[in-house]
Amino acid sequence: MRFPAWRIGVFLAAAIWPLLWLYEALADSLGPDPGKVLVDRLGLGTLILLLITLSMTPLQKVTGWSGWIVVRRQLGLWCFAYVVLHLSSYAAFILGFDWSRLGVELSKRPYIIVGALGFLGLLALAVTSNRYSQRRLGTRWKKLHRLVYLILGLGLLHMLWIVRADLKEWSIYAFIGGLLLVLRIGPVARRIPRLMGKKMPSVIKTK
Ligand code: HEM
Asked: What residues line ligand 1, using a CB cutoff of 6 Å?
């Protein structure tokens, strides 16, 4: 296994936040509505992890260090774990597992439909993120995994719908997302290593 300490460090850095928030909830330090705070933090965590995962390939191109690619899949799976926790805390703390309220909830909070589409996209990517699916799907795998940019768009739209008037924080995520999308465009992506005066290592596959 390459870069074991780096992989473990990334694992711990991603795992620590939900544990810390759970501890805060148990210690009664999340304010009067801890359930909602957990839903919000996990939602934001999902979006941030999505952006971090998408920045691994450009970072590898800019720095030439293959360590970024080594943790890309792990970060993508963490993003999925966060969205599962986000959805579960919504079901537990906002819905109270009362599924009969779902119809009213969807008309009251239509942004949930956008979030649910994003969740389904992340589920498809997580299920097919293994080597077996990569081999079986061949060139279709790459096409499928381009869905990640649509998922990012859905995540940003979902958040925009929630924050509405307070666009400051949202604009930062949207800007980073837009930048990552531009860096992904063929002619721009090809120029990155040249701009940095680096040669692209031929052994590393990038998305
Ligand atoms: C079935 C799937 C989903 C459901 C049911 C759901 C539900 C929710 C709910 C109820 C909130 C809190 C709204 C409020 O503060 O009033 C929220 C916030 C949020 N969600 Fe989701 N969500 C889902 C999927 C996603 C996905 C896929 C992403 C990201 C890619 C995401 C990112 C966010 C963000 C960034 C926030 C705002 C956090 C903040 O304001 O600090 N959610 N979501």
From this structure: 39-40, 43-44, 46-47, 50, 83, 86-87, 90, 94, 112, 115-116, 118-119, 122, 155, 158-159, 162-163
